[in-house]
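Lab manual, section 2.4: Encoding a predicted structure.

Procedure: take the sequence of the chain (118 residues), apply the prediction step described in section 2.3, and record the output as structure tokens. A sample record is shown.
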Amino acid sequence: MTTIADHDAYIAAAPEPFQPSLHRLRTLLGRALPEADEVIAYNMPGFMIGGTVVAGYAAFTRQCGLYLSSGALSEYADDIAAAGLKATKTGITFTPRKPIPDDLVEQLAHASRQDSGA
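Recorded output:
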């Protein structure tokens, strides 16, 4: 397995159709978490505050994922469902055709930061 050095390298190596979505997530998360450091954790790009990964994102074969604290996901479960998205205990999957709304990404990032105590 190839080691990914940073967010730019991860996005460049992702399937081309997902690259705009990954750039968008990176921008939104960076804006919502300005004090966070960009890291690669669990083989995906993440945003770390005080030693805790508060948010991360990834691309797969058929979809992308946004990964946050379980508390943030449960707090916004109704909004996630209203957007027609599927969530697990740790993340939300989406496609470029049905992205996560920008305001929801930012709300989730803030909630994940609070939930993780960062």
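Check your result against the sample. The longest helix spans residues 102-116.
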